[in-house]
Amino acid sequence: MIGDCWNMNRTASFPAMPGLAALGLTLALNGCISFHTVNDGITRAQIGETAQVGGIAVTPVKLLEDSRCPQETQCVWAGRVRIEARIDGGDPVELTLGQPLALAGRSLTLAEVQPEPRKDITRYSDEYRFGFTLSP
Fold first, then answer.
1. CA-to-CA distance for 73 and 95, rounded, in angstroms?
2. Could you write out the DSSP letters of every residue in 79-134?
C-alpha cells in the first residue's frame, strides 16, 4: 500500500498505463485521492452528458453555432454560441450563450462555453464543455 495520498484536479487524466489506472482506482476507493471541483455556481457538461442544474436535468445535444471571435484577433462582432439541449428529457430547445431561457418562474442560462476559439485551430463538438446556471 502506498503511504502517501495524491491530490488531483477533477479534470486530471491518467496516462495510458493500465497499472497506473488501477493504482488510481485503488487509491480512490481507499479515500486517498481528493477530487477538487470549482464551486462557482456553474454546472458543466459535454455533448451527450446530463448536468443537474438546480434540480433540472440539462443535456447538451448538438453544437449549432460557435461564431465567437478567436483569441488574439480583432473582430467587428463578438459572435455567439448556440446549442441544442434537452431539458428534463423533453424536446430539444435552442440555448444561446448569455441569453436566459424562462422555465417555470426561473431562468436557465448557457453561461459559459469552453474552450475559447483560437485562430488556426479547428474545434470539434466533443471538445466543448457547456456551463449552465439557474436563477430564481
1. 25
2. --EEEEEEETT-SEEEEETT--EEETTEEEEEEEEESPPBTT----GGG-EEEEEE
Question: What does the pLDDT look like over 46-68, one tens digit per residue?
Answer: 999 999 999 999 999 999 999 99
Domain segments of the chain: what residues?
7-36, 43-135
Residue type, 46: Q
> Quick check: helix, strand or coil at residue 23?
helix
Q: What is the pLDDT of residues 84-100, one digit of tens each?
A: 999 999 999 999 999 99
Whether pTM > 0.90 for this model: the answer is no
Residues sharing a CB contact under 8 Å with residue 46, sequence separation 6 or more, in sequence order:
60, 126, 128, 129, 130
Cell 431539458, located at residue? 87
